[in-house]
Specification:
Blueprint: H1 2-16, H2 24-35, H3 39-47, H4 51-62, H5 66-79, E1 87-92, H6 99-112, E2 117-122, H7 126-129, H8 141-145, E3 149-151, H9 160-176, E4 181-186, H10 192-197, E5 202-207, H11 212-217, H12 220-225, E6 228-231, H13 239-254, E7 266-269, H14 278-295, H15 297-324, H16 326-340, H17 346-358
Helix pairs in contact: 1-5, 3-4, 3-5, 4-5, 4-9, 16-17
Bound molecules: guanosine-5'-diphosphate.
Guanosine-5'-diphosphate (GDP) binds next to α6.
Amino acid sequence: MAVRGWTRAVLTKYATGMASGPDQKHHQRQTLNRALPDPAELAAGIRSGSRSALARGITLVESSRADHQAIAQALLAELLPETGKAVRLGLSGTPGVGKSTFIEAFGRLLTGKGLRVAVLAVDPSSARTGGSILGDKTRMELLARDPNAFIRPSPSGGTLGGVARRTREAMLLAEAAGYDVILVETVGVGQSETSVADMVDMFVLLLAPGGGDELQGIKRGIMELADLIVVNKADGDLVPAARRAQTEYQAALHLMRPKTPAWAPHVLLASALKGEGLDKVWQAAEAHRAALTASGDLARLRADQARAWFWTELREGLISTLKSDAKAAALMPELEREVEEGQSTPTAAARRLLDLVFGTAEQA
Ligand code: GDP
């Protein structure tokens, strides 16, 4: 398999590149083993359900080092047949709406049913703020200690595309490790909801009671992504407001075109704090999966997602190939300036660059 050959080449290069002295050899071999695990061995560890093997696999997936990436891709290729079995749920909501409280309670409900739950995150803001959702150890303390749960903070740094790719790959590894439910959390930042909706089967939007004004603040595009809306904090004095919000959101959903005739998005009430309504959310997730499986939509959705991901990878790969070409990189600022100053059209400038690197761009 091509990817294995590539890994071997990188491993060999890395190994032979190390200095060698008789007494250093043992230490270096150990360091090498620790730094660069064998993909087949690591795959076996992940398959057996070892949390440390899974964590290590995800670390490789998240690394930008070429030798780590080579192993990560070999690992994914090895484990690919064991992926795809989990229920993939996305969860979004603005800070303070109760996401971590919800995930903790919902996750524990699921582990209580004997399911294994992995919680991942996509937080493109973590690069800017230095922190990250799920990064705080005090969040989801009980779930974090649950042997049937695995929590991994958002990979930090890089573009949203890069963060999303690493989370997708982490999801595949968690599936191969036998997790039954993958929960991918995100905050309402930029396009992060869209990226998460593009990698899960069902996208759940968590909202707070508020109605009117609140409804105005939610972007229509995000409502359209939702397969299920959960109005959280439906407890105590907030119950009437939560009910009103439910009616309003339900009316708003009726005006939107459903993603598939097999599933009508709807609105549920819950209290993450009191653990109420969470079973209904899980029932909805199960009903959604059953409906989309029966209609063939689940298989289609995942195929579409995989194809779109392939094109994203291709686009990003091409851009980085261009950027790593010395001649192209030198020409880029000049072309950007020409475009900015109106001396060149963006199309012509892009073609010049492509011609330089590939020599195959068609002439207009
Ligand atoms: P996140 O920022 O979306 O992760 O929100 P948190 O889970 O940290 O919750 C923000 C605040 O809302 C905390 O003070 C929680 O205790 C509170 N909260 C979360 N869920 C509920 C709920 O169901 N009912 C009530 N009354 N408060 C809640």
